[in-house]
């Protein structure tokens, strides 16, 4: 799109990736995709409810009967945010049309048409939806085409059919409108009931508990058979699985020991993209993100708000960008460099100070993990010349792989809603470089790379001392204190989502007598609350357990976009609806996603709803006059966004680990043959029940069992929900 401040935004072009295209790229589609022209006849949406029958007619002839019942979620073609739809049915040279339903995207017709069937006729039945216009030509809303011969064989067919575009026109040549670079991956998984994954989860947990002394060292074998490109995904899945089992610290400790066992040089420790490094990155993002926001958020916000020109590299200084100061004279290069150094020193000092004060705010499991890392590295490199190595091991993750990346790309760490502009990006990059120098304990190699960073050296040296003191306090946590802190943090339920929303207030009858009032809302697993300001006293509005649906509202309902409705039961058990408006479409989707997640397990979730409002004597969406009508559109309670603070889904993580292990099963089987050949008898030991005691043999058996469970899982089994995860960059 091309944004216009005053008029409507202009369409530049589109990229369309079908499900088949994505399915052809199991590891994801990545590359440049040509923009193509946007043809209104191809931009269709929605479904139509039809009943098709072959019935006896007069004079021993057969009739094709088409009942056009209703449609839902049609494209809005008119300025009022609706359409005036009618349906055109075509067969064998004859055309019949339904009546026109004014101002509705959810029309109901309940009209029937009959066509005489000719023996052996190969012509298709075409059902088209159109938007009627009084002055200009009618707008196409989509079509469904049926094979009449198949209908004759089936005799009857009824259901909701997705409207398809008209792709009969010739396209303009690709490449004329530009291109978009995309990374898209679709993961379509059927998650089995929890019990199916228990053998796999128990086997992996037992290996972690045994540590490096375990008989099979399955974790080491998984790392060995995992390719570099898959390592981040596997690390994240394993980490989340063990986090849910309360074994994240033990899992990471095992990886630390494996990495230290194969590292001879202290300066190469945790510098590769090993399973330990990738797992620790994922761990900090999952367990430490809220902590990061508390420490780094205010500093990042200040950098964005100040928008100062900052540059330390003399070869990149642009005096013209600085403007004038003092007596309206341009600043000299030296003045620009000095002011930039002062600004960066202030930001760096503020960040280090915030970090130093944050020991108690750091999650107990993160502190305990860093304690294990610190101890393991000190045991491996105990000499005086390696005095800083345990500190650098901690900062290699805390500073180099967590804080610095978050400074350079705050949007990716959910610290800001938008990416920084060029000027702010440069300030953030220089600040991240300074943090890296502090994290490297002001190593000579770091200083030698960019000599122009020298003006920050006094603050960097002071920061090294502050950071070492901080790490010493951070890792000074005992088991008893760890459990106490964990319990205290678990009692403080952090908000799932919070921010300003506009709540609908009705002052009288009619659309002009309603308005939206701005309030600050906070959603936790216990309640959706509101207050006048973020710091004022909150009042509970709805319990998540009472939510029955969270859905969008048609734009025409209030003459406003980005409005959602929350359907819930009050304390008396009566259905109620509250309307809330968001500032933008992204915020609307985030709130809908959060509300759906906290209510996903509720009994009595609605299957349908009205996307309009009941005004006067009818629903604005489908024009039905019964206020208790079930609804004209389907709810989307399982359509959610993946967020960093999502609750863990243990079964999904187990399924993803199983899927990966299935992919490397040949390598695991080959490894097992090598290990078996190395034993004296060349056979596998078995336990009392005849089951193999060798963990690798057990793992291969578990994979076979899960494969069989997927094959034989009947449709009527306990809920095996297909989980579709679409990742788009």
From TrEMBL:
Region (Disordered), start-end ranges: 704-729
Keyword Zinc: yes
Recorded superkingdom: Eukaryota
Ras-GAP domain ranges (all copies): 230-440
C2 domain residues: 44-161
One protein family per Pfam: BTK
InterPro entries linked to this entry: C2_dom, C2_domain_sf, PH-like_dom_sf, PH_domain, Ras_GTPase, RASA4_PH, RasGAP_CS, RasGAP_dom
PROSITE patterns to which the protein is assigned, alphabetical: C2, PH_DOMAIN, RAS_GTPASE_ACTIV_1, RAS_GTPASE_ACTIV_2, ZF_BTK
Keywords, in A-Z order: GTPase activation, Metal-binding, Repeat, Zinc, Zinc-finger
Domain PH per the UniProt entry, residue ranges: 494-600
Protein name from the UniProt record: RAS p21 protein activator 4
Source organism: Felis catus
Organism taxonomic ancestry: Eukaryota, Metazoa, Chordata, Craniata, Vertebrata
Recorded name of the encoding gene: RASA4B
């Amino acid at each position: 799109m091309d944004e216009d401040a005053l008029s409507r935004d202009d369409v530049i072009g589109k990229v369309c990736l079908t499900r088949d295209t994505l399915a052809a790229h199991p590891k994801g589609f990545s590359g440049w995709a040509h923009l193509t022209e946007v043809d209104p006849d191809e931009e269709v949406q929605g479904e139509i409810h039809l009943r098709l029958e072959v019935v006896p007619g007069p004079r021993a002839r057969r009739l094709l009967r088409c009942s056009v019942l209703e449609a839902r979620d049609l494209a809005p073609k008119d300025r009022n945010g609706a359409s005036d739809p009618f349906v055109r049915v075509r067969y064998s040279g004859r055309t019949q049309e339904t009546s026109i339903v004014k101002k509705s995207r959810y029309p109901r017709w309940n009209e029937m048409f009959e066509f005489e069937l000719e023996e052996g006729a190969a012509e298709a039945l075409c059902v088209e939806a159109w938007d009627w216009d009084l002055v200009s030509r009618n707008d196409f809303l989509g079509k469904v085409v049926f094979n009449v011969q198949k209908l004759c064989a089936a005799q009857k067919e009824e259901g909701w059919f997705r409207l398809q575009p008209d792709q009969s026109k010739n396209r303009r040549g690709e490449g004329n409108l530009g291109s978009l670079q995309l990374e898209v991956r679709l993961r379509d998984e059927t998650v089995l009931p929890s019990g199916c994954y228990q053998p796999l989860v128990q086997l992996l947990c037992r290996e972690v508990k045994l540590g490096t002394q375990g008989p099979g060292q399955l974790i080491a074998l998984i790392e060995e058979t995992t390719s570099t490109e898959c390592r981040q995904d596997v690390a994240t899945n394993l980490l989340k699985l063990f986090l849910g089992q309360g074994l994240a610290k033990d899992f990471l400790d095992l990886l630390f020991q494996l990495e230290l066992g194969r590292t001879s040089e202290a300066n190469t420790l945790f510098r590769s993209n090993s399973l330990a490094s990738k797992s620790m990155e994922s761990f900090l993002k999952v367990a430490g993100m809220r902590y990061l926001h508390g420490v780094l958020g205010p500093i990042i916000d200040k950098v964005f708000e100040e928008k100062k020109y900052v540059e330390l590299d003399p070869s990149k200084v642009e005096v013209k960008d600085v403007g004038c100061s003092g007596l309206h004279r341009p600043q000299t290069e030296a003045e620009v460099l000095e002011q930039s150094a002062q600004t960066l020193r202030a930001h760096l000092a503020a960040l280090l100070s915030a970090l130093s004060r944050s020991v108690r705010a750091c999650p107990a499991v993160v502190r305990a993990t860093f304690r294990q890392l610190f101890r393991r590295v000190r045991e491996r490199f105990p000499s005086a010349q390696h005095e800083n190595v345990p500190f650098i091991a901690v900062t290699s993750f805390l500073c180099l792989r967590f804080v610095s990346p978050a400074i350079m790309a705050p949007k990716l760490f959910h610290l800001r809603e938008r990416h920084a502009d060029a000027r702010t990006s440069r300030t953030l990059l220089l600040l991240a470089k300074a943090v890296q120098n502090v994290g490297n304990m002001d190593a000579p190699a770091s200083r030698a790379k960019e000599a122009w960073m020298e003006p920050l050296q006094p603050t960097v040296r002071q920061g090294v001392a502050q950071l070492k003191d901080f790490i010493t306090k951070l890792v000074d946590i005992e088991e008893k204190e760890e459990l106490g802190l964990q319990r205290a943090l678990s009692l403080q339920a952090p908000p799932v989502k919070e921010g300003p929303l506009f709540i609908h207030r009705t002052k009288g009858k009619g659309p002009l007598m309603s308005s939206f009032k701005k309030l600050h809302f906070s959603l936790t697993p216990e309640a959706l609350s509101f207050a006048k300001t973020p710091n004022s006293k909150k009042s509970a509005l709805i319990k998540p357990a009472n939510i029955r649906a969270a859905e969008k509202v048609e734009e025409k309902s209030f003459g406003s976009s980005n409005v959602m409705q929350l359907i819930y039961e009050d304390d008396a058990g009566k259905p109620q609806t509250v309307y809330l408006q968001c500032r933008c479409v992204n915020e609307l989707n985030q709130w809908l996603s959060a509300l759906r997640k906290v209510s996903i397990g509720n009994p009595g979730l609605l299957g349908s709803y009205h996307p309009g409002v009941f005004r006067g004597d009818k629903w604005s969406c489908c024009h039905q006059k019964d206020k208790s009508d079930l609804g004209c559109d389907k709810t989307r309670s399982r359509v959610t966004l993946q967020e960093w603070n999502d609750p863990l889904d243990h079964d999904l993580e187990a399924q993803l680990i199983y899927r990966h292990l299935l992919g490397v099963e040949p390598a695991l089987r080959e490894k097992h043959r090598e290990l078996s050949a190395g034993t004296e008898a060349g056979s596998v030991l078995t336990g009392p029940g005849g089951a193999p005691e060798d963990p690798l043999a057990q793992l291969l058996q578990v994979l076979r069992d899960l494969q069989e469970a997927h094959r034989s899982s009947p449709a009527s089994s306990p809920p095996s929900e297909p989980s579709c995860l679409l990742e788009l960059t």
